[in-house]
Every structure is written in structure tokens, then in C-alpha cells.
Design goal:
With 312 residues, the chain is an alpha+beta fold. The protein is built from seven helices and 13 strands. The longest helix is centred in the middle third of the chain and has 51 residues.
């Protein structure tokens, strides 16, 4: 499995790609800039970084791999875990891990992962097709001095007017100008008349439309009977967490799957990392929650855990 390929695909769409039990690749948008000395223009881009502290599974990478490889989600997570263990073993041996189109990973003397991002690819989709370029200086003052020098040295010669008997050209030109102006103002008057007519017709249509909307809004001949829904509201500060997701579409999908299995799944908000948390259910006492947690771990998800949190 080419893990770096899946990470690279997701970096175009998301700002944080977490690899469970390893770390997270983050992107930060940088505006376009100009290098002062080389006069090189650089387009906007995403700058990559790596945070070893973010190792929680948000479900984004696993769901993407499961969708691409047409395998179950749990199988995708197991494959990621195996490759992470292999990467860590290579790093401990002092090797440098190359992630194509992403960057290099290596351990420093303190045992921490150091990330050197690559500059060969821009993950900002709005800058697609843009590359850096260099522009030469525009030397306007040089041309100004040349013109001034030519004006000082070039003599000015005045030629007397030569009269002729072709004055009828002047009258013909004047007639053409008068006819042109008349046609121009006539066309403007015609266009303004049409525009005024269209505006009045549009205002009248708007008045009729407003009247129809009001009639449809306030005079309903056959109103539908009111429907009363009885919803069970979950309470309690003890929650069994099924997962945390960055994309809300994955949240809705997870809740639908759990409810289909009979759980009272719901979303309880976001954690400090900005991830949406989904729980199997909530309980009033710790004992009830612990008993339900043991059963869920035994029958459905061994990674489920208990969260104690007071909801607003």
C-alpha cells in the first residue's frame, strides 16, 4: 500500500491529514510574494508541516483508503497500522523515509521526527497551473532622457498654409458630422424610450408577483394537519465514543450505521482538535456506561472508549 499516495491525494482537499499512531501532516496557506533582489514572482501555495503529537484516528485517512481499495474500514486501519510500524522501525535504524510529493522524515538525536517538506508540488488548487517567473526591471527614466535630448536638438519648421479652391470638402465634412450627430442622438433617444418601457413593465410584473405570493402565503384553503413528534432526549455525562471525524459527512454516515445496529448514536460536539465526536449512547451513571462499554467492545468495536463530559 502506497501510504504517501493517499496522503498526497487528501492534501489537495484538507488542511490536516492524520496518520493514526504516527502524526499529522498539516498545510498552511501562504500568499503570493515577490523576491526583492531577483524580481521573481511566486504564486500562492500551501506550505506543509508535520506534527508528531496529533496521532488520534479521525477516520479521514481510513475511510478514504477503504473507499479507494474497496475494503472494510477496519481492514484499512489495520493496513495503515502495519505500515506505520514498518516506517518507525526504519526511522529507528537511522534511515530517511521518502514520501513522494510530500517530503522526508528522519529521527534527530532526541528521538523526535524531523520533517523536510518538498517544494516540487503546490497543493493549493486555486493556484493550479501557476508557476514562478522572473521579470526584468522597467527603466522608464532612460526613455525619458532620450526624448528630451531629441526635443532639444530637433529644429522646428513652420510651413505656411496653402489655399486651394477645394472648399467644398469642408462643407461636405461638416454635413457628414451633422448627420452623424443627428443619428447618434436619435438612436440614444430610441434606446432610452425602450429601456423606460421595459422598466415600467418589470415593475408592474413585480407588483403582480408580490400579490400572488401574499395570496399563496396567507390564504391556504386546505391546510395540512399538524404533526406531533415524540423524541427521546438522551441525558447524562458518561458517553461511549465511537469515533471522531473532521468531515461532517463522515459523522452522519457513522451515526446512520450505528443506529441501523440498534444504538442510540448521536453527535455531541467537537473536541479541542476540532474533530466531531460520535457516541454510541450517553448514561447517567458510570456503572451503566462501563457495562455498556464492555458489551460494545466485546461485540462491535474494541477501540470504543468512555468519555466523561458535561454537555451544555
Amino acid at each position: 500500500m502506497q501510504l504517501e499516495t493517499y496522503i498526497s491525494d487528501l492534501l489537495y482537499r484538507y488542511d490536516c491529514i492524520t496518520v493514526p499512531e504516527f502524526g499529522a501532516f498539516l498545510t498552511n496557506r501562504v500568499s503570493a510574494k515577490v523576491h526583492d533582489s531577483t524580481h521573481t514572482f511566486y504564486p500562492p501555495k500551501k506550505v506543509l508541516s508535520f506534527n508528531e503529537q496529533l496521532q488520534g484516528n479521525d477516520g479521514l485517512l481510513g475511510n478514504y483508503i477503504a473507499e479507494i481499495e474497496k475494503i472494510p474500514y477496519n481492514t484499512a486501519i489495520v493496513k495503515v497500522s502495519k505500515q506505520v510500524k514498518a516506517i518507525k522501525s526504519y526511522l529507528i535504524q537511522g534511515e530517511t523515509i521518502q514520501f513522494k510529493n510530500i517530503g522526508e522524515l528522519v529521527l534527530n538525536a532526541e528521538g523526535n521526527i524531523v520533517f523536510n517538506p518538498t517544494n516540487s508540488i503546490n497543493y493549493l488548487t486555486t493556484s493550479f497551473g501557476l508557476s514562478h517567473f522572473t521579470s526584468v526591471d522597467v527603466k522608464r527614466e532612460t526613455h525619458k532622457h532620450i526624448v528630451e535630448a531629441i526635443e532639444e536638438t530637433t529644429p522646428l519648421a513652420f510651413t505656411p498654409e496653402k489655399r486651394s479652391n477645394t472648399n467644398w470638402y469642408k462643407y461636405a465634412a461638416a454635413a457628414v458630422i451633422v448627420l452623424g450627430l443627428g443619428g447618434y442622438f436619435g438612436a440614444n433617444y430610441y434606446n432610452n424610450s425602450i429601456e423606460t418601457h421595459n422598466q415600467l413593465a418589470q415593475e408592474e410584473a413585480n407588483v403582480q408577483l408580490d400579490a400572488k405570493v401574499q395570496e399563496a402565503t396567507f390564504f391556504i384553503s386546505n391546510p395540512l394537519p399538524a404533526a406531533t413528534l415524540s423524541l427521546e432526549k438522551q441525558t447524562g455525562n458518561y458517553h461511549i465514543v465511537a469515533g471522531a471525524f473532521r468531515v461532517e459527512a463522515n459523522v452522519d454516515k457513522k451515526i446512520k450505521q450505528l443506529r441501523a445496529k440498534g444504538y442510540k448514536a448521536r453527535k455531541i460536539g467537537t473536541n479541542r482538535y476540532g474533530l466531531h465526536e460520535v457516541v454510541y449512547s450517553s448514561f447517567e451513571t458510570r456503572t451503566e456506561a462501563q457495562n455498556a462499554l464492555y458489551k460494545i467492545r466485546r461485540e462491535h468495536n474494541r477501540d470504543a472508549w468512555l468519555l466523561i463530559k458535561k454537555l451544555d
